[in-house]
Each structure stands twice: as structure tokens, then as C-alpha cells.
UniProtKB/TrEMBL annotation:
The keyword Cytoplasm applies. GO terms for cellular component: cytosol. The keyword Repeat applies. It is an enzyme of class 2 (transferase). Residues 40-179, 209-347 form the SIS domain. The gene is glmS. GO terms for biological process: carbohydrate metabolic process; fructose 6-phosphate metabolic process; protein N-linked glycosylation; UDP-N-acetylglucosamine metabolic process. GO terms for molecular function: carbohydrate derivative binding; glutamine-fructose-6-phosphate transaminase (isomerizing) activity. This is Glutamine--fructose-6-phosphate aminotransferase [isomerizing]. The chain holds residues 244 to 600 of 600 of the full protein.
Length: 357
């Protein structure tokens, strides 16, 4: 039910701290240790390579998941767009595990891959928000997102839930493989929850950003490096999906390889900086486009902020920043669509679950 909210999308954005708390609770045992089903642990232990299969926003969450599995657990991981995998099938390892990420659990492109790999005898795990969905029933194992029903076509809380569950799954895999970590994931996720709350409380400030950067925009760019690049892809998808402003997300370093030709006087460019190791590089990309007339909106993490930045997100662990920075982009997209008088929850030409290939 909508309650006092004008749209499901803003309701679902606002529910994200609650979703994070629920996930922390569901994936923790009585001793406060990370907990997932032992059959899933076995699957993960036996795999020599993970193949994440997903579409749209879920694919973007998968890109972040790969970082967790590789950096924390040392397990090679590939992320594939479901619709491409069927014919652009890579060479597979000896013991692959396929991980399907899908809010709805009904995406036909992902199901086509699942049917195919099952025929070949490979193991599968579905990460979904909907218990009993097709992908959940047909895979060997399931992890639930616990995000509650997501009604708005634009996915918000499911993306955050997917990243959190992927982080937990990767951290469990790392633990089982005896990889040492000095990070207490659950307490870091609790800090993330507080940070998300503070971004949501700044909704008015973020609406002002939309007024300064997007009111008359026809096209826009989202740049970032490392994790911030992946969040830029999601920011661009969100914005185009509901505001119909053409948006492109790309790696900051790719600017000079083509896209910079599109920068004109006043073109909005969103630059995200939450990763210390690439802060200087993304700042210089921001300068490059600014020098060519772009209206640059920098979103930075506390500790990396500089004068003139449009918004500063609270400091959280480097690897977990997407959970917080994406909320800024979700709100930007929401207000951009709202100010254009669009149907925020039911954008044109789109369905909540895409059940045709
Ligand atoms: O239900 P799924 O997660 O499998 O859906 C995948 C995409 O269709 C979905 O994420 C889509 O990109 C969203 N509308 C984006 O907001």
C-alpha cells in the first residue's frame, strides 16, 4: 500500500534502511556470525569460477558482486548480460556455478540461460526477491533478498538488497576458504544503513540538484572509476528509464576515447568520487569536461570532498559505497521524472518483469 507516499518509487527508496536491517537480521546467526544455507556454502566451495547472469539493474548489482567474490574470496567471477550469454557463451571452467540475480525471478532472458545450463548439468543459485518465482523453483538453490514487494518499474530497494546479499555471500565464501579479513561486514552494513538514512533525509537538497542540473537537459553523462563506474551505469539507467533524458554511464578514463566529443555548453555530467585510489583521476576527468562547458555535478564521499561539490555522502567502507551513492542517483531520477510530469511508477514502454526474450 502507498500510505502517505505519492508514488511507489519514493516509498521504496525510503524503505531501503528497513530492507538493510532485515537483511542483516536474516543473514546472521545467534552469535552474530554471517549465516547462509549449508548447501549453498557447499556449492560455492566447490565452484572454480562463478558466472553471474542477470539483466538491467540486476546486472549492475552483479558487477559489484564480482568485486566482492574476487577481492574477498579470491574466486574468479564473470558477469554476463543474460540475453547475450545464450549465443556469446564464454568458455566455461570445469566446475562453474551459475548465479542468477533477478528481483522478479521471472526474467525470460535469464530463464533461457538457466534452462540451457541445466541441460548441460551445471549447478545454479538464484538470488531473488520472490520466493517461489520461476528462477527460484528451477535453480538448485535460492537466496532471498527480503526487500518486500517492489512495485515501481524502476528498481531501487532490490538493487541495494542484491548488493548486500552478494556481499554477505562473498564474505561467507571468503570465510569458508579461510581468507582473512579485518572487516566486520555486519557492522559495516549497519553503518551503511545509517548513511542511507541520512541521504534520504536530504531529499530536498537532492531535489535542488535536479533543479540546477537537469530541468532543461536533453542528454547527460554519469562518470566514475572502479566501483563508481558501475554505480554510474545504474544512475544512467535509472534516469533514462523514468525521466526519458538520454543518459550514458561510462568509465572516466574512456571520456577521451570518444564521448568527450558530445560535451557542449551546459551538458550535465554527474561525476562520482567515493574511491580514494582514483579520486584524483576522476577529479581530472571532471575538469576536462568542465573546461569544455559541461555543468559538472560532483558527488563525493566524506573525506574526499572538495569545495564546490554538489553533494557529500557519509563515509562508509570503500567496498560498500555503491549502497549509499546509488540512493543519490535514485532520488535524482525520481525528481527529474516528477518535474517532467512523467508517470514515475509506470514509465512508457516498460513492464516490471520482462517475460519475453
Ligand atoms: O526482475 P529482474 O531483476 O530480473 O529484472 C531485470 C530488469 O528488467 C530490471 O532490473 C530493469 O532493468 C529495471 N526496470 C531497472 O530499473
Amino acid at each position: 500500500e502507498l500510505g502517505t507516499y505519492p508514488h511507489y518509487m519514493i516509498k521504496e527508496i525510503n524503505e531501503q534502511p528497513q530492507v538493510m536491517r532485515k537483511i542483516i537480521k536474516e543473514y546472521q546467526d545467534d552469535n552474530g556470525d554471517l549465516k547462509i544455507d549449508k548447501n549453498i556454502i557447499k556449492q560455492l566451495n566447490e565452484a572454480d569460477r562463478l558466472y553471474i547472469i542477470a539483466a538491467g539493474t540486476s546486472y549492475h548489482a552483479g558487477l559489484i558482486g564480482k568485486e566482492y567474490f574476487e577481492k574477498w574470496a579470491g574466486v574468479p567471477t564473470e558477469v554476463h548480460v543474460a540475453s547475450e550469454f545464450v549465443y556469446n557463451t564464454p568458455l566455461l571452467s570445469e566446475n562453474p556455478l551459475f548465479i542468477f540475480i533477478s528481483q522478479s525471478g521471472e526474467t525470460a532472458d535469464s530463464r533461457a540461460v538457466l534452462v540451457d545450463i541445466k541441460e548441460k548439468g551445471y549447478k545454479s543459485l538464484t538470488i531473488t526477491n520472490v520466493p517461489g518465482s520461476t528462477l527460484s523453483r528451477e535453480a538448485d538453490e535460492t537466496l532471498i533478498l527480503h526487500a518486500g514487494p517492489e512495485i515501481a518499474v524502476a528498481s531501487t530497494k532490490a538493487y541495494v538488497a542484491q548488493i548486500a546479499v552478494l556481499a554477505i555471500t562473498a564474505a561467507v565464501t571468503a570465510r569458508e576458504l579461510n581468507k582473512v579479513s579485518d572487516m566486520n561486514l555486519m557492522s559495516e552494513l549497519a553503518k551503511v544503513t545509517t548513511a542511507i538514512t541520512s541521504v534520504i533525509e536530504d531529499a530536498d537538497k537532492i531535489e535542488e540538484i535536479v533543479k540546477s542540473y537537469l530541468e532543461t537537459a536533453r542528454n547527460t553523462f554519469f562518470i566514475g572509476r572502479a566501483m563508481d563506474y558501475y554505480v554510474g551505469l545504474e544512475g544512467a539507467l535509472k534516469l533514462k528509464e523514468i525521466s526519458y533524458i538520454q543518459a550514458e554511464g561510462f568509465a572516466g578514463g574512456e571520456l577521451k576515447h570518444g564521448t568527450i566529443a558530445l560535451i557542449e555548453e551546459g551538458t550535465p555530467v554527474f561525476a562520482l568520487s567515493t574511491q580514494e585510489k582514483v579520486d584524483l583521476n576522476i577529479r581530472s576527468n571532471a575538469q576536462e569536461v568542465k573546461a569544455r562547458g559541461a555543468n559538472v555535478c560532483v558527488v563525493a564521499m566524506e573525506g574526499l570532498e572538495q569545495e564546490g561539490d554538489a553533494y557529500v555522502i557519509p563515509r562508509v567502507d570503500d567496498m560498500l559505497t555503491p549502497l549509499v551513492s546509488v540512493v543519490v542517483y535514485q532520488l535524482i531520477s525520481y525528481y527529474a521524472a516528477l518535474h517532467r510530469g512523467n508517470d514515475v511508477d509506470k514509465p512508457r514502454n516498460l513492464a516490471k518483469s520482462v517475460t519475453v526474450e
